[in-house]
Amino acid sequence: MSDTYITRVAQFLPNEGVLNEDMETYLGYINGKASKSKSIVLRNNGIKRRFYALDREGNPTHTNAEMAAAAVKGLFEPESKEIGEVDLLCCATSSPDQLMPSHAVMVHGYLPELDAIEVVSPSGVCCAGMHALKYAYMAVKVGDKKKAVACASERLSPVLKADQFEDEVQQLIRLEQNPIIAFDKDFLRWMLSDGAGAFLVENKPNPDGISLKIEWIEGCSYANTEEACMYMGAEKGSNGTLKSYKDIPSDELIEKSILSIKQDVKLLGEKIVKLGFTKLKEILIEKGVDMKDVAYFLPHLSSYFFENKIDDFFTENGIPIPKEKWFTNLASVGNVGAASIYMMLEAIFNSGALKKGEKILLAVPESSRFSYMFCLLTVC
């Protein structure tokens, strides 16, 4: 089997960055009032800027598939014919523009430079981007493909807009209940961002610059023991089960904001670090990896709130990573879900700082039902 390399990394961010004080200009005010939880959430998550595929009036400027295609094109020189050599396209997202056709074929539709090639759409949430990379990695490694593209993108801003919650607020007013959107819904309005990232995966290193050899990619899910923590298009019952939007009356879909994204914040805090990073320790022992040999640690963080919790776990479990080895760009680009790890890697890959022989450890926790992906890369 062939060694496999990430030879180029690109990203696409829509429009200008949106600062904290301008967020409700884009997303709107629910019931005409500023959010009471916004300042609390932002203080904890540490995000200073994010990007929306919206203009200041809340009108869409890009589709998810368009952003993904723009990131893919960014891997190649303008007017280059090389993009036509791509023989596999893997595109992941948790926020496709439609339920059908699949997200990846829609991205393919924006890339007429490509041939009639294999196209794959891994589903999921934050881990989906890593599943796209693993499919590309395995296809190249076994010799089935030579030049694969893995891509991840998100466009969640439309479901964060105030008009998505207005009918629910008006229903609460009619019932004379407190017309404040529950924290499990309001919480994520101040966390999420839009954008796309892409990797070129090949069976030989880039002759004109650095490459990242993929040593291994490992993942796991705890859905066999844990209930859903983040969900969309469903209603969560008191026993932890999810009721599909397909089984909810159409009027309740709007009144209860069923199609908005929600987070069980209590469950998130209790589970997200302990489950996944216990697994990471097991993987490192199995693979014979010493944290001292890791030059860069790239954790996908939904919030800087979890940074110290992960650091404490590492220290308590005998696998400390000095903070100077950590890298995240959460503060400047926001939480872009499946695309976040692509954007972090893009920032250091194209920084000029990497040296041959350095090892990079990627860690992607996904709170939806507690899934995790980990990857070790070597600069060459």
UniProtKB/TrEMBL annotation:
One of its GO terms (molecular function) is acyltransferase activity. It comes from Dyadobacter jejuensis. GO terms for biological process: secondary metabolite biosynthetic process. Residues 286-363 form the Beta-ketoacyl-[acyl-carrier-protein] synthase III C-terminal domain. InterPro entries: ACP_syn_III_C, Thiolase-like. This is 3-oxoacyl-[acyl-carrier-protein] synthase-3. Keywords: Acyltransferase, Transferase.
